[in-house]
Recover the amino acids of this structure.
């Protein structure tokens, strides 16, 4: 019997086709092997899975619902738009799905501390929440640019007890935060757990984070069928590293459903003014894994930009690269202007203020719905926009009524 896609990918060495793997310095080989062995064992453990199910139900508030965006659909004048409401997951984004699970793995491994990078701050807040829940120390590395831009989330992390490490080199955004956290982790790998914030990094993290986010797609598939007696024609999610997209895509990967990943086109197609890795990048190794990345003239990771801090990363998860390469996903883009417009449209028409990351998916879905008036479209509304309202209103005036 042929294995399903998810049971076949990645292979034992962590490769999705030619993408993935573990390109790490010798001091990290042992701790990453330990994490891989622990996850392989715990993912089959009744006690671990039962504790995780209990946390999701009684602490996170899962399952999150699907909402039919009737007024937005009517405004577009096209297809029917539905929202998988990860903004209603505790802490306001999908990130807690893997953070609680990674912290639980750390607990089973006897670690005293969890640490990670963050861009928009949603992963940092979720990890600080998990640390508080399990009684662990928490260290979050965050670029200085994002600390200023995402001040509400920085305050939340501090209230939750996390130590914030400002990253002051390079562009002072997400890539540099990852660099900083990796460097810090090397010296404390024996007592700490690096909870990587997306489906990126060395094996087993792309697989592990995908599996923990899979709950989004499994819920969505069942809920959508209950609502409509059918599957959606298309599912849409924004793609930076790609965790929220893989969460939703995982539920429909073996079904006749179109999968759209929406990348940030930023200010323009000029290198340094966007972060559309899959659209404009090429194969390359960064942060311990092989994928598709944006490169400068020297072949190094290029500077990137997006209005959404959680999307401004010069590479993408290896599974996202693989799915694009084999033609299973369709890659689209949304620029800053389009995403800000979608941010306000969803707020005004549905009473839902989305994260700027999610606004990229909303923007593209609006265009897709207009072009396909008979189709149904399911968006992963991966986060709420509380963290973004100060930045947005200071830089993009609230539209008139």
């Amino acid at each position: 019997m042929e294995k399903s896609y998810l049971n076949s990918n990645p292979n034992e060495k962590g490769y999705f086709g030619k993408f993935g793997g573990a390109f790490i310095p010798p001091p990290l080989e042992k701790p990453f092997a330990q994490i891989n062995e622990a996850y392989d064992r715990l993912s089959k453990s009744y006690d671990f899975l039962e504790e995780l199910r209990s946390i999701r139900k009684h602490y996170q508030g899962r399952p999150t619902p699907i909402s039919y965006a009737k007024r937005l659909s009517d405004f577009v004048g096209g297809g029917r738009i539905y929202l998988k409401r990860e903004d209603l997951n505790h802490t306001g984004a999908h990130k807690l799905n893997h953070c609680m699970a990674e912290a639980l793995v750390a607990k089973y491994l006897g670690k005293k501390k969890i640490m990670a990078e963050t861009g928009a701050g949603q992963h940092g807040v979720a990890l600080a929440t998990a640390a508080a829940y399990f009684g662990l120390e928490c260290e979050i590395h965050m670029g200085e640019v994002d600390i200023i831009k995402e001040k509400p989330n920085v305050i939340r992390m501090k209230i939750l007890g996390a130590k914030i490490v400002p990253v002051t080199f390079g562009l002072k955004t997400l890539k540099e935060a990852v660099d900083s956290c990796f460097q810090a982790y090397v010296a404390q790998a024996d007592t700490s757990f690096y909870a990587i914030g997306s489906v990126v990094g060395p094996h087993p993290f792309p697989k592990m984070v995908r599996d923990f986010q899979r709950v989004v797609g499994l819920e969505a598939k069942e809920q959508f069928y209950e609502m409509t007696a059918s599957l959606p024609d298309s599912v849409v999610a924004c793609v930076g590293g790609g965790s929220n997209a893989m969460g939703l895509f995982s539920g429909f990967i073996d079904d006749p459903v179109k999968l759209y990943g929406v990348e940030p086109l930023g200010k323009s197609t000029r290198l340094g003014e966007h972060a559309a890795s899959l659209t404009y990048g090429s194969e390359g190794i960064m942060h311990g894994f092989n994928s598709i990345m944006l490169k400068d003239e020297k072949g190094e990771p290029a500077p990137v930009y997006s209005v959404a801090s959680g999307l401004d990363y010069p590479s993408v998860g290896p599974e996202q690269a693989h799915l694009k390469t084999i033609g299973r996903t369709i890659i689209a883009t949304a620029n800053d202007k389009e995403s800000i417009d979608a941010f306000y449209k969803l707020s005004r028409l549905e009473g839902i203020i989305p994260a700027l990351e999610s606004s990229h998916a909303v923007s593209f879905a609006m265009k897709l719905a207009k072009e396909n008036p008979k189709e149904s479209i399911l968006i992963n509304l991966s986060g709420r926009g509380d963290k973004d309202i100060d930045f947005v209103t200071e830089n993009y005036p609230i539209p008139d009524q």
Summary: The longest strand covers residues 258-266. The longest helix spans residues 205-228.
